[in-house]
Structures are given as C-alpha cells and as structure tokens.
# Entry
Amino acid sequence: MSEHFTDCGCMLRIEGMRTSFKAAEARIADLILANPDQVMGLTINELAKISKTSYATVTRFCKKLGYEGYKDFKTSFMRSTLSGQNRSVLLTDLRIDLSCSVEEICNNLFAFFQQSLEESRSMLDASLLDRAAEIMHSANSVFFVGTGTSSLCAQYACSRFFRIGLNCGFESDATLYRMRVSTLKKGDVLFAISASGRSSDIVNCARIARENGAYVISLSDFSGTPLTNHADISLFTTPRTAKLSQNIDMPLFTCQIMLIDTLTACCCAKNPQRAADVYARTRVSSTEEKMTL
# Structure
C-alpha cells in the first residue's frame, strides 16, 4: 500500500465509492460499514461467505479501492477503525438547533471543518498530485471550469496559477466556457471541478476536451462518477454525506481550496524562479491599485 494512505483513508474510500460498486461489491461495502468490528477478524474466505460473494469478488473489491489485495486492505482497515469511530462521534455531536449556544456552534463547526480537512488530507495521493503539477507546469494552457460553488473554486484556482506563471483561463458563463473547451487541443489542460462529479455541463466539457486530445484533471468528492470516467487524473476531497451541516457548501469548498493551494505549491516547486518572478510582478501591480490614506 502506498505510504500516503493514512489511518482514516480506508473507511472513507469505501463510503465515497459506495454508489459506484456493483451489487456484489456493494454487499461487501455495506457489511464492512455496518459491522467493522466483526469484519476486522475475518479471513478473505469468511468475508466472502458472510457477504454471499466470492474470493475473487473480495479481491476485486480491494483492488477497486486502490489496495494490492486483501492483506493490504485489512491492514489499512484495522488502523482506520478507531478513526472511523471518532468521526462518528463527531457527526453525532454536530447538532445545530435552538438549544445551542454561540460558543457550541463555533466549537462544533470549527471541529467539523478541521475533520473535513483531515479527511481530505487522507485522500491525497502524493504521486498523482506530483503528476498533476508536472502536467500543468508544462502545459501550453490550463483552462478551469466549474458550476455553482465549484465555479468560485475554479475562478480562485485560475487566479492562483496565473500568479505563478501558468497560462490560465476561466469563464463563468456556460456558453463561453463550452466554446473555450471546444478549442482545447493536445498540450492543453482542462481542470474540471465538480463536487458531485455528475454536473452534466462539466462532464461534457471533460469528454469534449479529452476527445480533442487535451489532458483532463478532475477534482470531486471521492467516488466513481461520470467525471472521473473522462479524466486522466482524478483528485478528491472527502466524501459528502447527508449529515445535517455537512450539506452546506463551505466545508467542501474549503477542502477544494486547500487542495488547489497545495497543488499550486507543487507547481511552484517545478520552477521556483519563474513562479517567484511572476508573483513579484503581479504583487506590484495589485499593490499599486490599493488606496492610501
């Protein structure tokens, strides 16, 4: 197993990919999520029997999660159980109602944001992040697309990468960004952001860009989605669930921003002198626009 897999990554991967599993694989996932303590002591044959699947299906399930096999999966799963329990406690305690004081609301939300960031960190694949930075660093152009809250994230990303010397583009208007995407070609990169990975506009942009020979990098929740099917590299934040305040966009947006800032730093490392020079010039320009007293 890769060294970037951290303790809570296993359970989060299962939760995030739940909707993409086939029927037999979904039975394994449901059994694990519902009875983690029981599964911890099972052999691969025992897990196959209880889930009414097969040895081959359990092996395929483990590999679909990114593990080399059952032994690799089980090692990560055993380490993740405690983290998963702590996460459940946090979500149970995350209640916002009329009985909450301002202090309780602050404590709950800050704890939730911190947990979301920690979970997103556990999802990061360092090798993929480095590969994405290399592709963007050497691209002729990088075009960012997103809708809704993800559009704000795409605009932020464009401004960040532009300031370190990348040839970037962004359009908020759907008609304009569809036209821009249709002109992308080999040597260009489309950076497609969709939290759900199912926004039809963004998925179609990824499909068209890839058909034209452009490289596609996606950013979404951790799950098998239509967007990831059209991406050369897929980056992920923590899965979103239906838990009360988790339905608000800001924790997800914060995780997306954090990943973009991390990727920006990785790109800077590819050519620090260029990044420093361009950033210095844009800083002078933005400083000149500020009013003085």
Remarks:
- Residues 70-93 form the longest helix (24 residues).
